Amino acid sequence: MRVSLNGHSKIYIPPESPFIVNLLGKHKDALKPTKFVSDLKSDIYMKAWNIDYECLLKEISVISDPTYQEFCHTVLKHPKKSATIIGDKNPTYSLFGKKLIALYPTAKFIWLIRDYRAQVNSMLKVNFETKKVGALAARWVCYNQHIHQLEKRYPNQVLRVRYEDLVRLPEEGYKRICSFLGLDYETSVLSVKLNASEFYAPHHESLEEQVSDKHIDEWKESLTDKQLQVCQTVAGRYGEKFGYDKIEMRASPLLVRPFQGVLFGRAYIPFIKLMYSMPFGWRKFFQKKFIESSFSYWKEVKKEIEK
Which of these, 127, 123, 161, 157, lies nearest to 140 by C-alpha position? Predict the structure, then answer.
């Protein structure tokens, strides 16, 4: 969706980096442009942005009424200053809706939800922290529950979009999104074109494809019966709220082991919240020492960025 929406002349959504939440604790009440840009630059995500940091520092330094929100807005808009709608696409932000809406009370949120079985199948192909099906299904539930609560509290500021509906009827879907953002629809959003100056992680290679529904049902062939049973046991009831009906399966005993994954998946959410509540220096050390150096995904990303 990010790549497609960037085809609109009035929209710009930069690559992923949860820097707004990452730098919030240290910089919200202690605004110093040089330190802010220095900490921003140290974020591994930001290495993929190809930002001219000297130019960015000059832009931030001349803000007449500096606020943390304005600093962050300047960063987001830096690569495309002509944009009138600035987005920030980060799955991690699903857990921090309250913080974001406190910072930006008029912000609008596009909630893209996908069939949990397709999501789990997709995650199994990537070298993230775990390949435990129970953990991935539980994480899908927790992330979407957080956004669902935000939607209930701010119904006029959250637009729920089912991935399957968007790729089956993309023109109708993007017209709805543009209307929600207060923009006229432009057909250019249907012509996917990657930005040559941006970095794309290896698992995002499918972004080069035009909008299509060909991947929707891949999970039906890829997931084993056991994996599907675990998915539906963990996330099936919640998934039905969004039209993801369970497939009838022959009952079979589930082992205890898959549910160890469920515990891991549920524990991941408070862990992420705890990590982002740490002082910035501690979190930076922890992330570099134990996350970036331990998981193959981060090693692959760092290698690709260096190329």
Answer: 123
Q: Residue 301 corresponds to which amino acid?
A: V
CATH 3.40.50.300 fits 2-306, yes or no: yes
**Predicted local confidence at residue 254, as pLDDT:** 56
Residue 144 CB neighbours (<10 A): 23
Q: Helical H runs in 84-132?
A: 97-103, 116-123
The angle formed by the CA atoms of residues 178, 182 and 183, to the nearest 5 degrees, is: 55
**The tokens of 271 are what?**
């862990």
pLDDT at 222: 95
Ordered by start, the domain boundaries in the chain are: 2-306
pLDDT value of position 163? 96
187, 210 in Cβ contact below 8 A? no
Distance CA(238)–CA(245), nearest Å, equals 10
Q: In the prediction, which pLDDT does 186 show?
A: 96
For 256, which DSSP code?
Answer: S
Q: DSSP code of 291?
A: I
Model pTM greater than 0.85?
A: yes
**Contacts by residues 236-243 (CB-CB < 8 Å, ≥ 24 positions apart):** 236/116, 238/116, 238/141, 238/144, 238/145, 239/115, 239/116, 242/113, 242/144, 242/160, 242/162, 243/162
CA distance 260 to 225: 18
Is 131 in contact with 124 (CB distance < 8 Å)?
A: yes
- Provide the pLDDT for residue 46: 86
Neighbours of 161 (CB within 10 A): 18
- H or E, element range at 259: helix 257-277
Helix, strand, coil shares of the chain as percentages rounded to 5? 60, 5, 35
Q: Which residues of the chain have pLDDT under 70?
A: 193-210, 251-258, 290-307
DSSP state of 159: E
